[in-house]
Each structure stands twice: as C-alpha cells, then as structure tokens.
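Hi R.,

Here's the chain you asked about this morning:
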Amino acid sequence: MTVGTGTDTDARDAIRGRGAVVAALMLSMALTAVDSTIVSTAVPQIVGSLGGFPIFSWLFSGYLLAATVTLPVYGKLSDTFGRKPVLIAGSVLFLLGSALCALAWNMESLIAFRVVQGLGGGAIQGTVQTLAADLYPLKERPKIQAKLSTVWATSAVAGPALGGLIASCADWRWIFLINLPIGAVALWLIVRHLHEPAREPVARGRVDWPGALAVFACGGVLLTALVQGGVAWAWLSAPSLALFATGLALVAVVVLIERRAAEPIIPGWVWRRRTIAAVNLALGALGLVMVAPTVFLPTYAQSVLGLAPIAAGFVLSVMTLSWPVSAALSQHVYRRIGFRNTAVVGIGAAALILLAFPLLPYPGAAWQPALVMLLLGAALGLFQLPLIVGVQSTVGWAERGTATASILFCRQIGQTLGAALFGAVANGVLSARLGGSGSLDSVARVLDDPGSVADPDRLRRAVDTAVDAVYVGAGCAAVLALLILLLVAPRRFPVLQEPQEADQGSRGEPGQPGSQPDQLSPTRRETDGAP
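And the predicted structure, written out as tokens:
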C-alpha cells in the first residue's frame, strides 16, 4: 500500500491494501505488549532452570530500559529514512532477541537477550503509532488508534496468564519461541504490503550518532537509578547517588551535543512548540497515573479482597473494555470542542475517579473496584487518544516520527518514575501502619497463607491504606495533567490541513459551521503555540 499523499490512484491502492498493513501493525503491537508482561508468571520456572535469582528483576528492567531509551532515536530515524526500514529492522531485532532468549544458558545471557528484544520493541512501539497516523487521515485516526489501544490493553492483561499457562504446560522457552511465527507473519505483511511513496529529495544531514549514543546512555543510567532504587539498593546509598549524579552529567552532555548537531536526535522544536511540550508533560503525568491500577490494584484485589489471581486480573481487565470504546468515540467530542478540551474532560473525570477509590468500603466487594476501573478506562480513553491524534496532526510527515516518539517516551518515563515514587509511598505507609517493618511485596506474600499470621486483618487493613495512598497520589498526578493542559496547552491545536481535505477546508468541523478551530492552512504559521 501507499503511505502518505499521492495521486488518486495511489489513494485507491492505499485503501485496498491498507488492511494487510493494519493487521501487521496489530500483530506487532500485540507481540511487544505481551512480551513486556508474559515473563512475570514464569519466573519460578526460569529461575529453577537457569538460577540467578538475585538478578532476575533485570528480565523486566533490561527490556524496559532498552525499549524506552531508544524511542527518540527510532523516531528521528523514521523521519529521516522512512517508517518501513525502521519497522523492519526493529522487527528483525525483536525476533532475533526472542530466538536468543529461547537459547539462553544462564540468567545473565537471558537478560542480555531481553535487552536485544527491547531494542527491537522500541522501534516497533514508536513506528507502529507513527504509521497509524500516516495510514489514516485525521477523521479516521480514532479507528486505528482504538484498534491499537484494544490490542495493547488486551495483550498486556493477557500476558501474565499466557506466560503461566505456557510455563505450566510446556518448557518456559516456548514463551519466546511463540513470538517467531507470529512475528514472521507480521514481518512478511510489512515487507509485502507496506510501500511508502517516493518523496521529493531533500538534503539529509548526517545522522546524529553521537547524540543517539548520549541519549541512550543518559536514559539508561537514569532509568536504572529509578528502577533499581529502593529495590536493589537504598535510595540514598552510594550506587543510587552515583547513578543519579552520572545521569545528570549525561543530561548536560546530551544538551551540548544536541545543540551543536545539524540534525539532532531530540530536536529543540519538540519542547519549543507549546502544543507538543504540553502533551509531552501531560502524558508523562498519565504514566504516573497508570501505575496505580496496573501495579497496585492486583495486590489490593488479592490481599484485601481475597480474590484468586485470575479474578484479580479481571478486576483490572475491565478497564481495557471501556478504554478503547471511549477512545473510538472521542472523535465525536473533539470535533465539537477541540482536542484540548476533550482531554481536559477526560483527565478531570479520571482525577475524581482516582480520588474516590479510598472511599470504597473495607473490605468491600469485587464489583466496586471493578466499577471504578471501568469508569477510569472510559475517562483515560477520552484523555489520551485526542492528545496523540492532536499532536500527530500538528506536524507533517517529516516530523511525525519524532513527535510521536517524544510523547511515548515521556509517557514511559512517567510510568517508570511513578513505579519508583508510589512504591516508596506504599511501603512508607505500610511500615508506619505496621510499626516500622514490612514492605508491600512481603506482606502480600504473607497474606497468601493467612494461617501463618496471627492477625491477618491488621495486615489487610495496612495494605488497604497503602493502596489508598497510591490512588490519592495518582489522583494528584491527574490533577497535575489537568493543570498542564489548562495552563500550558493552547486552547486550539494548530492542526495542519491534509491534502485530501484541502478542498473541504471552508466547511469547518461538525458543530462549528464556517470555522476550523483545530486546523490551519497546509503551511504552518508562527502562531503554533498561540491560544
């Protein structure tokens, strides 16, 4: 198919062949989403086979670090060389990493191969989201984004169950081998059906490889400090302080290199343009928000409500039912009131829902937190998708990969920061309730066998209070995102008019005759950040 603009024949060919590419994107998204969680329930089998219990947490951290810090690099490369070569390279790296993981001989080698997987996963995540905007015009983008949201949410929730099933019925290595046929199909569809149009030749500067290396090193060091702080070592210990100091020094190196580069990996316009900067910050706050349900709700459901792991997973998974539906319907809202105002409604509702969680009765029934999650998914679908679609629609093809990667990068950084911050909050509250001892993980493990505890109700109430504190923190993060949108984001996003809509430009948006509050002419004006 053809991506981007072209002749009428190109457009007709694009519509006919688009389904195969969308299928490939959904398969690729499913692989990366499942792979970030599928290993969790198979850890006992992996450790039993390979050993290395003290460092097994790097199975998750290594993948997360590699996928996150490479997002800006792949975004810039896709703008420079096109989406297809970057997506193919990322898919090959991901499949190579999967095959190597299945052949791992000890925990160290498995961690190293998970990093290879993560290097491919970063390319897939960013490029799939960018291609979604390339494939569809503005009016149709909610359809593909809703599909990708559904795939991501379903796969992420199903990952642990699938990993446990494979580990119990077969060798754990099949967790990685199963990626190969699915990924091969997606790769074949991409190679066969994704055809980017020829574009006008432009003078390309040299790829900023020093900047890419500096971004990778800086992100890796800081994320390592956040992921391992309070887990592998104390926050104020020498390793933690050394990593943060090194990370800050590398930030200065990145700024110095990027200011001198002709084609920087992280160009300054990402933060100079008010719209993109505001969305970056708002989605960074969303990353903080998402920690409460995804990390702490399963513990709450099992330890406080006494649910089995599958039932606890269901309490979380209801959020994945309402999120994509709300995202798909959000277009009817933002066409009337604009991208920013739609996101304001969504995150405002999310803040109220999160702050209402501590009001649930103790111990309560499972339907109560499930209802909260259902409402939260609907609110966040109304918040996230308009911002992503809005930012992608304010830039042209040559900047879309970088802009998309920047918002995904900030969201992932927010989630990593949130896990560290709220983990410390939960453990602090728990220690205060239990007289200065215990952590959430250790208490949850003890509650798996209530007969071994003299007063299990005291522990359950302590966990309930700790999770309530996390939800209050997540509600504050949602309020922060709301303030960012109100104070930083422009009231109307400066959307670029697409070529296929140029002849309809005078008709305006539905509900606002004769005006286009979220559209500009095809040439960007300097009022990019004007409210």
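DSSP finds 20 helices and no strands in the chain.

Let me know if you need anything else.
M.
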